[in-house]
Amino acid sequence: MSSPLKTHFGRPQRFLIFSLFIFSFLGHLQAQHNSLDLIKTRVYNSIIADYSDHSVKDKETHFDDGAIDTILSEFDGEKWPYIHYDDVSREGFDNGIHLNNLVKMAVAYKVGSSKYFKDKVMLGKIIDGLRFWCDRDFIGENWWNNQIGTPRSMVDLMLLVGDEIPQNLIVQAQVMINRADINKGGSRPGGDRIKVSSIAAKNQLFLNNKKQFDLIIDIIENEIKFVDWIGSEFGYTYSKSNRGGFDEFSKANGRGLQYDYSFHHRTDGVNNTLSYGLSWAQAFVEWAHYVRGTDYSFSAEKSKILVDYYLDGVCKTSVFGIKPDYGAKNRSISRPGSTKAFDNHIPEKIIAITDYRQEEMKAIIRLRSGKGVEDTTSHATFYWNSEHFTYQRPTFYTSVRLYSSRNMNMESPYNSEGLLNHHRGDGANHLYTRGNEYDDISPVLDYQKITGTTTVQKEKLPHYNEIKKLGLTDFVGAVTDGRYGAVGFDFKSIHDPLVARKAWFFFDDQYVCMGSGISSKSENEVNTTLNQCLLKGAVTVSSKGKRQAIEPGAQIYRDLDWIYHDKIAYFLPTPIDVSIQNNTSKGSWLNISKQIDSPKEIIGKEVFKAWINHGQSPDNATYQYIVWPNIRLDEVEEAKLNALETLSNTPYLQAVRHTDLHLLQAVFYKAGALTVGEDLKIQASAPCIIMVQTNQKGEIVKITASDPNRELSALVLTVSKKFKASGAQFKTFWNSEQNRSEILISLPQGNFSGQSVVIQ
Description:
Layout (H helix, E strand, L loop, with lengths): L10 H41 L2 E4 L2 E4 L2 H8 L22 H15 L9 H17 L6 H19 L5 H11 L15 H15 L2 H13 L8 H4 L11 H4 L6 E2 L5 E2 L11 H15 L9 H15 L3 E2 L3 E2 L20 H9 L4 H11 L10 E5 L4 E6 L2 E6 L29 E2 L21 E3 L19 E5 L4 E8 L5 E9 L4 E10 L4 E10 L4 E5 L2 E4 L4 E12 L2 E20 L15 E14 L4 E9 L3 H4 L7 E6 L3 E6 L4 E6 L3 E5 L3 E5 L3 E7 L5 E7 L7 E6 L10 E6 L4 E7 L10 E3 L1
Antiparallel strand pairs: 1-2, 3-4, 5-6, 7-8, 8-9, 9-10, 11-16, 12-13, 13-14, 14-15, 15-22, 16-21, 17-18, 17-19, 19-20, 20-21, 20-22, 23-24, 24-25, 25-28, 26-27, 27-30, 28-29, 29-33, 30-32, 31-32
C-alpha cells in the first residue's frame, strides 16, 4: 500500500501544496510590506536631505539652525506677514512660501543635530501654521499651485510629522493633497503626470495604503516611454487635447519623450528638454532610486530609457554636460539664476540604480566636479523632432535653435514670464568656451539682436501674446554623423516681412555661418547678429591688416577683417562694416517677467554685441563669417583659414569644404548640382542636406544625408566618382557610360523622419 504523501491526488499532498502556496503568498506579502517600509524610510530621508541646510563632517550631519531662526523670528503665531496671501494670481501666489517654511521647520524638528529637535514649542508652531492654511485653503489662479505645488509641500509635511498632527488637520490636509489627482487635468502626459503621480504615491505611503501605492507606482514606471508625435500625420500643432473631456486630454498627443531624446511638454513641438523634460527625468530617477532593490524595482528596459535620455538628451543639450544651454531655455531665462550649473544628484542616483553606460555617467560626474575637460564628449547632435542642434568639442560648445511648419517657435509667456522672447528661436546660435557667457544677461539683453539671428529692427517688439506662432517653412533641419554636422534653415519670419536662407557648417576648430537671399519688404533695417554676450576683457578688431583694441562704446567699424573678444575670433572673408557695442547695457527683470518676486530695480551689465547691418529693405543680401573659438589673440593674425573653402552661398545652395578634413557639407534648398574642384560633381534629386567624406586619395568613403522637408522616402545622389557599396538603407549603381555613381538612399519615416542616414 502506497504512502498517502505519495498519492498523486491524495488529500495530504493537496494540503501540503496548498500550505506551501499560502506560505509563499504570505512571504511575498511580507516582502512587499518590508519593501514598502524601506521605500517610506528612503522618501523620508530624501525630504530631510532636500530641505536641510547642512554640512557633513566626520560622518555626522550638522544642521544649520540659522535659516530656521530667521523663519521663526518672522512668524507671528500663524503666518508670515510679508507673504501676499490675498494675491492668488498667476503672477503672484507667493503663498507657497508659507508651506515651504512649515516643511523646513518640520525638518528641524526631526533632525537630531538641530536645537529644535523634538521641541514641542516648534511642533505647536507647525500645527498653528498648518491650521492657518487649512482654514483658508488658498486656491491659486494657476492650476499648478493647486494640483502640484500645495499638495507636494503638504504631503512632505505629513510624512515628516503627520503622526503628531491633530486628526482634523490631517483630514483637511488630505483634501488638498488629493487635488494631485492622476485622473484630472493637471495629470496630462509629459512633465506633469509624473509630478502628480509622485505626490499621490508619497501620500499612499503616508496613509499606508499598499493597494493604491501598487497602482500608482505601476503608473509611474509605465510613463517611462517614447511617444508618437501626433503631428506626423496632421501637423505639429494638431491636437484634440482640449476636446472630448479628460479622456482625450489624458492621451499623449505628442507630449513626452521624443524618439530623438528631446522632450515636449505640450502639443506645440517646442523643445522642453531642459525644463519640463529635466524635471520629468528627475522624478523618474528619484522613484527608481527609492524602489531599487525592492519588489517594486523598475525594469532594466525602463532604466535604460532613463539613462539614454539623460545622457543623450539632457547632457548633450547642456554646455559640456555641466550647465544648461541658454539657447535651449524658454521663458525660464526671465528668472535669475536659470543657467546655474547642474549638480550630481541625478547621475549619482542613476549609478546606484543601474550599471548601464556607467562610465559615461561617471564622466559627467567628474566634469561637474571640476575634474578637467578630458572627459568632454565631442558630438554633433540633431533633435529632429524639436528642430534643435548642438555641437561640442573639448574647448567649445555651440547650438542652433530652429523652428518650422512642424513646430512652434517658442514657449508661450505663461504666467507673464519671457515677455520678449519673440526672436529667440530664429536660428539663435549661442557659443561657449567657459560656460558663463550668458549668465543672467536676460534683463539687459537686446531681444532684437539675439546671437546668430537675422532680424528686422523695430521700434518695439509686438505684444507678448504674439510670441508663439507656427513656423511658415518646411525646409528646416540638419545632417550629422554624430561627430560633424551642418544645419540648413529656410527662414521665413513669423513676425516680419523677412526671408533668408541661413546655414551653419561645423568642423573641429571652427564653424562657418552663411546667409543668402536676405530680403525684406519692411522699411526698417535688417541686422544679423554675430554674438551678444557678457563682456569679458578687451575687444580687438582688424581693418585692412591693421588691428586695434577699441574703446568702450558703440559704433560702426569699417572694412573689418576680423573681430576678437573673450578667446573667440570672428573672421570676415570679405571685409565688411560691423557695428560693435562693448559697454554697459541696462534693464530690469520686471521688463521680462511680471511675477510678484521679479526684481524691480534697473541694473547694468557690461555687454559685447556685434552685428552686420544689411540696410533698409534688403534685396538678396548675403553674409558669411567664420567663428574660431578658443584661440589666443596672438594666434589670430597667423590663423590659417585656407582649409575652409566656400563653394556656394546662394538662395539655392550653400556649401563649404574643409580640405584638411576632406569633408564637404552642402545644403541643397532645391534639386541641383555642386561642382567641387575638377574631379567631383554631386547632384541631388531633391532638396536635402548632405556631407561627403573622402580619403586622401579623393575616394568617397562616407556619405551622410537628411531630408529637412520630411517628405521623401528616398533620395538619389549622383557623384562623378565610383562608389561601390551596399547596405540595408541604400543601393549604388555604377553608370559606366556617364562615368558616375548613382546612390539610392532610403530615408527614415514616421517618428524618425528628419534623422540623418550614414552610409559608408
